[in-house]
Amino acid sequence: MKLKHLTVLVFITFAIATGLSRAQACEPVEPGSLDYGEREDGRCEGISRTPIAGAVRLSSITIRGSSTMSSELMLGVPPTTRGGEPSVRLQSYSSKYQLDRIPWVLRGQYFFYWLDTSVLRSSETSLNSLRALAYDDHSNLALPVIIGGQGTEYEIVFWAQQPTRFSRFVIHGNNGQIYYETSRNSFENDEIKFTWDGKDPQDKPAQAGDYVIHYWVAMEQGNSSPIEDDDNQPFRHIPSWLQ
User: Which residues pair with 131 in a beta bridge?
Assistant: First the structure.
């Protein structure tokens, strides 16, 4: 079954699952508590009881540095097109850890935050399980999030409730030039990962600016034919964050 857009039911479920568009109550919690709530510096952090639901969604665009858990974890994001703080959520689907309402500090051109990892360590949430996505609310532009310092590539992760096949995954410039293209021909669920080193097919670094993630998916529907759809998401590429 070929659908240019998902049905209204799937669309509503998708919107609920996006996370950034749905506020969760953040009440003050006692020091040492693992429950999701407001911490001493105003951030909201802990183990969330909100179930994950939805169709297919982009859940993370990150650059990863150190994979070793220490007492603090450095996080970084670029500003929005208006120079303000973007909307950011850091989470782990496996442990149900969640961090948002982050009190960013502007250092030079970018916002940074040094997270006390007590909750991460106590909840046994691994660094590799963390997913993060930042949005410019004024332009629907996705922004990359640094986790632990500079890295060598972008990690782009989708979450899928049902087995999903990516027949095509493309990163292209606003002029249509393709910088990266691949596929996932087998059906996968939960998480589907892609990586991009910030270069074109000739191994030349892509210039700083805004690019587009465009993807075509087929979602299994039990005994029915898969639902097919395509979507795109503009995002900011920052070459200086890649080593």
Answer: 91
Whole-angstrom Cα distance, residue 188 to residue 119? 30
Hey, what amino acid is at 167? S
Q: Is 40 helix (H, G, I), strand (E, B) or coil?
A: coil
Tell me the pLDDT tens digit for each residue of 152-211: 999 999 998 889 999 999 999 999 999 999 999 888 878 999 999 999 999 999 999 999
How many C-beta atoms surround the C-beta of residue 217 within 10 A? 22
CA nearest neighbour of 183 among 197, 203, 165: 165
- Asked if 89 and 99 count as a contact pair (C-beta separation under 8 A), the reply is yes
Give the number of other Cβ atoms within 10 Å of residue 2's Cβ. Answer: 9
**Closest by Cα among 95, 86, 36 to 61:** 86
Place of tokens 């087929």: 218
pLDDT tens digit sequence for 140-154:
899 999 999 999 999
Please state, for a pLDDT cut of 70, what percent of the chain lies above it. Answer: 89
The Cα–Cα gap between 86 and 8 comes to 28
CA nearest to 10, candidates 61, 43, 41, 56 = 56
